[in-house]
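About this split. The held-out portion is used to measure sequence recovery: a designer receives only the structure tokens and must propose an amino acid at every position. Recovery is the fraction of positions where the proposal matches the reference. Here is one held-out target exactly as it appears in the evaluation file.
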């Protein structure tokens, strides 16, 4: 059969079974066998009839039983058979016979059931008539057979029910209950319609009684089946409803029938009797009849609750909860635990499921029930089973559910009644419930309520004092705190006295630390704003609370193993209240500082200070971690205290960007005198009246106690967290000088000593003895990294340190150069050079030696170079330097010229440092340093390029195109890294050769060689200028220019000599001069009259040295400076005439009066003719005296040099008598010093402070600080004596001053011991008033006698005091005009020397006294007629233009010597010949002339322009207000005066004075500040000096300058933080922030502009300059520091700006730009002459020009 057929068959079977369709083939019950009819004969009937004998009759009946049961009888046979035996069933028949007859009847009915027909009624009547009790079972079987097991009651339908009702008692009594009950179930199911109501009622009632009689599970099960059948198939009469419900309520208590009972009850409740059933059960619950059936009541409670709100509720029931809940309440009166528990469960289901929907009435009943249950649980009922332990749990769960409903606002009942129930069982409720209860009570504690304070007291009494649970007690305190916070303003005293003090008076004795903690918090909160009297009470409680030892409890959770250590743990949970109390006091101190009365703040201050002092005095009682945390918190607060200039105290607010707010009630220093009321150092001064009131009303906080605690901590504390806190915050605290200096005693000196001891004293045991150190190895270098920043901050307190302490401080900072704070220490030492010059001067050689040992790293490059560039401008620092110290400087700076390791800016700065130090070192040493510097440049620059060039060639040879391309990519990326200023790896690395980069750095070395050649033997200004005499001599002369190597040589010869004037052999120019004038068209402009006074800027100027020494191409002199040659006789009646000494002329020199009217002989020979007209010529005058002169002008990258000379050879046969012209000869010093050893200083093993190992650090530490501490003092004393002896030896350095002329009557200038070098003219080294007074004219004969008594070349020893430099910081006056130094009565008309000793810009801060004097040989030589013209005055433009012209055919007829003659004489012999380069004569065309003009336009010194703005109060974000400030504070004005000297802009020539774009016609103001030295000119764009105009409200004219400056100095006098960008400008990359502080100090910080990443310039500036540390500097040294920082920042900006805009031509210096211009001129000349460009020659080795000197 297929699967489909089987599925169809199965489906049919399922449908048949569903509809109870029987198969036709299935046998039917009582079906007659399919046999043929059985026929009874009359004999058979006779045998069974009454006539037959009894025995035979009974036997025959028994035999026929089987036949009638199995055979089909003939028609009417049934009636015949029953008629034959009916007498046997009569009541009087024997029992045996009756039983046999009944059995035969049963067989007959069973066999012939379908053929009975109407006989069914007859047989039912037979069964009904059987009344004998013995026949009960037979009757039941007969009825069962006749009714087909109760299914068919045909013919006796109405009679069956009463029969069963009558039989049921007997059957139940007989015990044959099971069969009857099964039959009864079938009858009810199949014939319920035939059963009358009374029958059903009787059957149900009797059935309900069965569970009470029988314990048989089967019988009880059958009873439930009967009841179920009645409910389902019949009609349950109301009379029996109670019986059914009672039976079910009892059976529900039986676990086996619980489910069936509920199912039956659910069916019943679903009928029309459902509501009646509920009512019936409620009545049962309310029935108080005794005895009480507990099971019945329990079942009723269950059925009602489950039917109405249970999980299987009956949906047809519509009873409300409030209709049945009173019954639940009533049933509780039975005091039954079983019933009560059922009520709890039912209420639990109700509240949990329908709690949100219950109405107020329902909740009231529920509350009644809960109260009843609570009472029942608390009462012990006799004769009751014990209380189910689950009942309290479920009960409290009900309360928790209601609490949750209340919390979410869903509880509609009476809240107070509910919490009353909670309060009744509060001891058994969880903490959260009681907490809610307390919150409820707290809402009722209001002043408007009666007895509210008493209620609060009662609440605390119950839930704080009597309660033991921590959370509840803390909640009670929280309520108290809340009530206090709300009502303390009105009822503060009443609450504190009646509630707080009674309950918290002994809080320190409470055993619960958490409660003590919360109490402390509450007291601290209360103390913040309570009355003073209450504050005193509260502070007493707090004092008792914290006045306990802070010791941890040692616990051992794990037993120690044998031979092992016991594992110990420290429990500090009991110290939480002390920690909270003290930390709260610290916070309270921050609040009370700003409140009145101030005594409260002082009390807290004394408490915290006293506590920490107690900790240090009794360290054994405060050894826990909590104690360390407390110390750290107190230290942090004390370290965050600050004071303003009025001594008002305040705290730093870290939450508001360290905002400072000061208290008017607390001061750190009392000032009562009227003189001290105003504070001049205040950034924000206040009126005297307000300050007077302030000092009289404020209280004194003695910060000495706090400061002494810091020292004690550093001495005795062993917890690293505390020491770290002190060390980290001390540098910031030390910036507040007012607060620090308010302390008494020598605490500053002590602190410095303690800090130094922590570094240099090994016996202290740091850091080994510290605890709580960071995870991992905490080394000595890590420990020192925290100390060095504090030591650096101590530099600003140098005035309060004795010399030994200063020396100790410098020594520690010197050791810090090898630590992790090397950069910081370098900056600190830089400040030491400014602030502690006396001590630092003696320690500087050691510092330089230490720096020379440090590896040149990227991180150290800028600090080291900045340090070197700072001290070079302090001549006093290196006044006693010898060759080794200078060598150390060059050894330090040279490694930073490595282009493969350092950025362009670093390399450029290194070259600047080398240049200025070379210029500033002593002349006798310079020659030896040339080889050293060239060797260093060769090793760091040229050799690396050569090696990389070879490496590139090898790679090109050994690689294919693909590899070469990859290598070029690597080269490009490497170059990009270098351009961005980043460093490459420290390992040996050779990046590929970049032609542009190689050329750039080679040109830098060329400029370095050029300036060394220029300054190796003398210091001369970089820009010469013709004097008026030279202009007169060279007027109309011939000019030619040659290009020789990297120098442009221009030779100009004197004109005249051709046009004679009559017979005087004088040219027309000379004759016009003698006659008192020139032709009108050639007359030079009249100089200023001698009586003209200088403008007031000359008086305001601060430094005579700086002011008098400024003259160069861009000189900022106020009036024109006129130079004179040395051919004038100096008389007393004449004005002073200055002679160039190789430096420059002073800007004080007045114009010579009557210059145009002086006789020519007095002008040139110094002869004062007795005749009044001055026109008589001396008979010794040569013919054409103005011929034979020549000027050699050499333009070099490092500057220009000009020589004036006259040929000695005769030009004709006519021998004219030589004119007695004076001679200025160069005195060459005999370099007898041993050449310096470069290898000794350039050690191969240098210290890398950034990555130094701990072992190496320890070895250096041992070397720097010997371990023998006992000999420290002796060693210090010994070192001091040694240094003093060395100084004494240094004082004996010799100076030879006896250079004299051979002429016996010639007078020389002799310098006394205190006068400066004649050749150096160092401006910073001499006071002009003193030096002039020390000058004297000495007779040559006496000079010769003095020299003759000495050994030749033997230096004279001079005292150190006499050789010490007369330093002037910035406060000198201008020197007066030089007085006449000649003898007035000298009868000889001989030539006298007049040396102008006015300092030049190149010597403003240059070499020491011995620069050009030591080791000068005492030789005498006839002087040649040469005049060195190197001054810088007006007329330069005309002078330069005259030099740039070559000889033309038109000029060939001019008089004088041909320039070619002069050049050939100098060049042919190799004097000017260098290398193999041949001289190139420059053609006279526009291109070359323009190129020379461009060369002259590039200054031979560095130029910087810096903006200066003043920010007043409230102006930090107001650009207009900042720019429109017309003036600043007094300190600001003093600062400006220190930055430079004031110059009058209208008097300045922009072509000669660098003014940074300022207008000289007044639009940018009348005055400006400028500063300059040998290599640098700085102009300041000062906003307050520029005018404010109504037509320019936005100050765009000022922004035109300041907004385009790379660097801006911001003098921030506002007291607020200034952010870069307030002054908007595209190029304003760096701001130098100056914040004036108290006690004549200032804070200097750098801010770099933050811009998007694509603008690499400012990103790199921020990376290179990245000065995160703030420098504290005094007012006196502020200008020097700021100027140096500004110059370095501007140089960085210039370098990086060019690097971005023109990466192919990086900027390094103006010298480099001049060199490039010279090379461009060469290329133009070669291109024009040969139409091809000469191939560049192979790079030559750096030639040592000192070999042929």
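Reference sequence for scoring:
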């Amino acid at each position: 059969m297929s699967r489909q057929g089987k599925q169809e068959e199965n489906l049919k079977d399922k449908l048949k079974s569903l509809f109870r369709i029987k198969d036709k083939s299935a046998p039917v019950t009582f079906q007659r066998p399919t046999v043929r009819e059985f026929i009874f004969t009359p004999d058979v009937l006779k045998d069974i009839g009454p006539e037959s004998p009894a025995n035979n009759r009974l036997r025959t009946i028994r035999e026929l039983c089987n036949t009638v049961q199995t055979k089909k009888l003939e028609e009417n046979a049934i009636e015949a058979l029953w008629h034959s035996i009916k007498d046997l069933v009569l009541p009087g028949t024997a029992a045996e016979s009756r039983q046999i007859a009944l059995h035969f009847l049963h067989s007959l009915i069973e066999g012939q059931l379908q053929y009975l027909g109407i006989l069914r009624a007859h047989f039912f009547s037979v069964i009904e008539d059987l009344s004998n009790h013995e026949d009960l079972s037979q009757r039941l079987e007969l009825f069962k057979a006749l009714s087909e097991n109760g299914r068919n009651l045909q013919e006796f339908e109405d009679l069956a029910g009463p029969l069963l009702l009558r039989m049921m008692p007997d059957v139940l009594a007989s015990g044959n209950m099971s069969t009857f009950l099964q039959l009864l179930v079938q009858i009810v199911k199949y014939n319920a319609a035939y059963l009358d109501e009374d029958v059903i009622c009787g059957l149900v009632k009797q059935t309900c009684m069965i569970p009470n009689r029988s314990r048989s599970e089967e019988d009880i099960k059958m009873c439930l089946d009967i009841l179920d059948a009645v409910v389902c198939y019949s009609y349950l009469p109301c009379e029996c409803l109670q019986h059914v419900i009672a039976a079910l309520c009892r059976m529900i208590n039986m676990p086996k029938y619980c489910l069936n009972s509920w199912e039956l009850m659910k069916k019943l409740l679903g009928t029309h009797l459902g509501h009646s059933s509920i009512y019936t059960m409620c009545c049962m619950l309310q029935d108080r009849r005794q005895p009480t059936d507990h099971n019945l009541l329990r079942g009723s409670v269950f059925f009602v609750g489950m039917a109405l709100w249970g999980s299987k509720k009956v949906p047809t029931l519509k009873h409300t909860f409030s209709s049945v809940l009173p019954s639940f309440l009533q049933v509780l009166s039975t005091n039954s635990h079983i019933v009560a528990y059922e009520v709890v469960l039912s209420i639990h289901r109700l509240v949990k499921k329908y709690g949100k929907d219950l109405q107020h009435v329902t909740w009231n009943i529920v509350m009644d029930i809960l109260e009843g249950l609570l009472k029942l649980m608390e009462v012990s009922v006799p004769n009751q089973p014990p209380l189910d332990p689950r009942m309290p749990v479920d009960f409290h769960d009900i309360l928790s559910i209601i609490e949750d409903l209340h919390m979410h606002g869903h509880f509609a009942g009476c809240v107070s009644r509910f919490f009353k129930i909670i309060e009744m069982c509060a001891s058994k409720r969880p903490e959260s419930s009681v907490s809610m209860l307390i919150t409820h009570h707290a809402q009722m504690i209001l002043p408007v309520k009666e007895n509210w304070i008493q209620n609060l007291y009662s609440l605390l009494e119950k839930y704080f004092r009597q309660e033991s649970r921590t959370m509840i007690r803390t909640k009670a305190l929280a309520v108290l705190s809340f009530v206090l916070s709300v009502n303390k303003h009105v009822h503060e005293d009443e609450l504190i006295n009646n509630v707080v003090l009674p309950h918290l008076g002994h809080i320190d004795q409470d055993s619960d630390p958490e409660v003590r903690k919360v109490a402390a918090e509450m007291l601290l909160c209360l103390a913040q704003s309570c009355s003073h009297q209450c504050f005193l009470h509260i502070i007493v409680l707090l004092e008792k609370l914290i006045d306990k030892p802070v010791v941890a409890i040692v616990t051992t959770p794990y037993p120690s193993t044998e031979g092992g250590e016991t594992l110990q743990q420290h429990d500090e949970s009991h110290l939480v209240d002390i920690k909270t109390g003290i930390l709260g006091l610290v916070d309270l101190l921050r609040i009370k500082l700003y409140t009145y009365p101030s005594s409260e703040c002082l009390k807290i201050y004394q408490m915290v200070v006293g506590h920490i002092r107690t900790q240090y005095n009794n360290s054994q009682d405060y050894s826990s971690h909590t104690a360390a945390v407390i110390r750290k918190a107190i230290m942090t607060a004390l370290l965050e205290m600050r004071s303003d200039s009025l001594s008002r105290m305040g705290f730093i607010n870290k939450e508001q960007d360290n905002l400072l707010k000061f208290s008017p009630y607390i001061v750190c220093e009392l000032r009562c005198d009227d003189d001290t009321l105003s504070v001049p150092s205040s950034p924000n001064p206040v009126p005297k009246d307000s300050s007077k009131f302030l000092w009289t009303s404020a209280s004194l906080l003695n910060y000495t106690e706090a400061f002494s605690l810091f020292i004690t901590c550093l001495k005795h504390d062993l917890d690293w967290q505390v020491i770290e806190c002190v060390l980290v915050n001390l540098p910031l605290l030390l910036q507040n000088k007012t607060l620090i200096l308010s302390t008494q005693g020598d605490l500053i000196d002590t602190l410095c000593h303690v800090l130094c001891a922590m570094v240099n004293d090994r016996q202290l045991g740091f850091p080994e003895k510290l605890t709580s150190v960071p995870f991992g190895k905490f080394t000595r270098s890590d420990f020192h990294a925290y100390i060095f920043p504090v030591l650096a901050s101590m530099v600003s307190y140098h005035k309060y340190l004795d010399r030994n302490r200063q020396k100790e401080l410098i020594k520690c900072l010197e050791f810090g150069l090898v630590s992790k704070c090397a950069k910081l220490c370098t900056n600190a030492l830089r400040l030491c050079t400014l602030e502690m010059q006396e001590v630092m001067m003696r320690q500087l050689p050691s510092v330089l030696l230490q720096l020379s040992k440090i590896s040149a790293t990227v991180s150290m490059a800028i600090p080291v170079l900045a340090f070197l560039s700072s001290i070079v401008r302090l001549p006093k620092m290196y006044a006693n330097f010898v060759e080794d110290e200078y060598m150390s400087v060059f050894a330090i700076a040279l490694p930073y010229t490595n282009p493969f390791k350092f950025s362009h800016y670093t390399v450029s700065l290194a070259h600047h440092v080398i240049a200025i130090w070379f210029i500033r070192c002593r002349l006798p040493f310079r020659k030896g340093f040339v080889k050293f510097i060239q060797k260093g440049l060769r090793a760091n620059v040229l050799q690396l390029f050569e090696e990389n060039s070879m490496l590139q060639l090898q790679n090109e040879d050994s690689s294919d195109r693909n590899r070469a391309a990859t290598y070029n990519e690597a080269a490009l990326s490497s170059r990009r890294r270098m351009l961005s200023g980043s460093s490459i790896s420290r390992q040996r690395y050779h990046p590929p050769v970049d032609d542009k980069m190689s050329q750039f750095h080679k040109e830098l070395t060329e400029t370095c060689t050029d300036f060394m050649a220029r300054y190796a033997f003398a210091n001369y200004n970089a820009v010469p200028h013709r004097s008026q005499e030279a202009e007169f001599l060279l007027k109309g002369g011939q000019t030619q220019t040659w290009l020789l190597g990297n120098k442009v040589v221009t030779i100009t010869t004197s004109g005249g000599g051709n046009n004679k004037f009559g017979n005087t052999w004088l040219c027309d120019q000379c004759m016009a001069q003698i006659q008192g004038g020139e032709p009108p068209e050639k007359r030079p402009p009249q100089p200023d009259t001698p009586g003209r006074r200088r403008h007031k800027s000359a008086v305001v100027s601060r430094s005579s040295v700086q002011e008098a020494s400024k003259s160069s191409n861009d000189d900022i002199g106020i009036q024109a400076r006129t130079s004179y040659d040395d051919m004038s006789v100096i008389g007393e009646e004449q004005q002073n005439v200055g002679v160039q000494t190789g430096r420059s002329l002073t800007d004080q020199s007045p114009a010579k009066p009557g210059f145009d009217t002086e006789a020519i002989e007095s002008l040139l020979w110094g002869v004062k003719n007795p005749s009044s007209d001055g026109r008589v010529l001396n008979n010794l005058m040569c013919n054409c005296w103005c011929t034979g002169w020549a000027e050699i002008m050499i333009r070099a990258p490092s500057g220009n040099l000009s020589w004036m000379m006259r040929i000695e050879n005769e030009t004709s046969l006519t021998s004219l008598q030589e004119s007695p012209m004076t001679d200025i000869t160069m005195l060459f010093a005999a370099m007898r010093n041993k050449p310096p050893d470069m290898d000794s200083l350039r050690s191969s093993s240098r210290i890398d402070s950034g990555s130094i190992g701990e072992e190496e650090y320890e070895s250096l530490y041992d070397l720097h600080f010997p371990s023998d501490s006992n000999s420290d003092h002796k060693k210090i004393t010994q070192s001091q004596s040694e240094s003093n002896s060395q100084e004494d030896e240094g004082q004996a350095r010799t100076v030879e001053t006896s250079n004299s002329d051979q002429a016996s009557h010639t007078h020389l200038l002799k310098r006394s011991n205190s006068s400066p070098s004649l050749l150096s003219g160092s401006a910073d080294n001499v006071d002009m008033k003193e030096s002039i007074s020390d000058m004297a004219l000495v007779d040559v004969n006496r000079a010769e006698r003095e020299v003759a008594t000495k050994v030749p070349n033997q230096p004279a020893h001079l005292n150190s005091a006499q050789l010490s430099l007369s330093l002037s910081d910035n406060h000198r006056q201008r020197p007066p005009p030089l007085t006449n130094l000649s003898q007035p009565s000298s009868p000889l008309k001989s030539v006298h020397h007049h040396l102008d000793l006015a300092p030049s810009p190149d010597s403003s801060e240059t070499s020491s006294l011995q620069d050009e004097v030591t080791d000068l040989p005492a030789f005498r030589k006839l002087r040649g007629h040469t005049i060195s013209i190197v001054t810088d005055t007006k007329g330069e433009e005309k002078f330069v233009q005259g030099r740039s012209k070559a000889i033309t055919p038109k000029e060939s007829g001019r008089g004088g010597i041909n320039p070619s003659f002069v050049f050939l004489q100098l060049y042919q012999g190799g004097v000017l010949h260098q290398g193999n380069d041949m001289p190139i004569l420059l053609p006279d065309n526009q291109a070359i002339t323009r190129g020379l003009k461009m060369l002259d336009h590039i200054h031979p010194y560095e130029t910087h322009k810096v903006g200066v703005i003043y920010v007043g109060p409230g102006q930090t974000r107001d650009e207009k207000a900042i720019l429109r400030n017309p003036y600043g504070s007094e300190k600001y004005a003093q600062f400006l005066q220190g930055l430079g000297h004031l110059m009058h802009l209208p008097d300045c020539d922009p072509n000669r004075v660098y003014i940074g774009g300022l207008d000289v016609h007044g639009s940018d103001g009348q005055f400006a500040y400028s500063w300059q030295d040998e290599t640098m000119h700085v102009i300041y764009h000062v906003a307050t000096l520029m005018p404010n105009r109504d037509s320019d409200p936005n100050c765009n004219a000022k922004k035109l300058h300041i907004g385009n400056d790379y660097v801006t100095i911001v003098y921030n006098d506002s007291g607020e933080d200034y952010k870069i960008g307030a002054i908007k400008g595209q190029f304003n990359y760096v701001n130098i922030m100056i914040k004036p502080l108290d006690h004549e100090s200032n804070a200097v910080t750098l801010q770099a502009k933050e811009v998007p990443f694509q603008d690499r310039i400012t990103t790199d500036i921020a990376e290179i300059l990245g000065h995160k540390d703030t420098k504290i500097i005094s007012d006196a040294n502020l200008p020097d520091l700021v100027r140096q920082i500004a110059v370095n920042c501007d140089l960085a900006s210039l370098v990086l700006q060019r690097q971005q805009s023109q990466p192919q031509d990086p900027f390094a210096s103006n010298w480099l730009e001049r060199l490039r211009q010279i090379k461009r001129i060469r290329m133009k000349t070669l291109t024009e002459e040969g139409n091809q460009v000469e191939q560049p020659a192979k790079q030559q080795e750096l030639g040592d020009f000192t070999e042929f000197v």
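Annotator remark: The radius of gyration is 61 Å.
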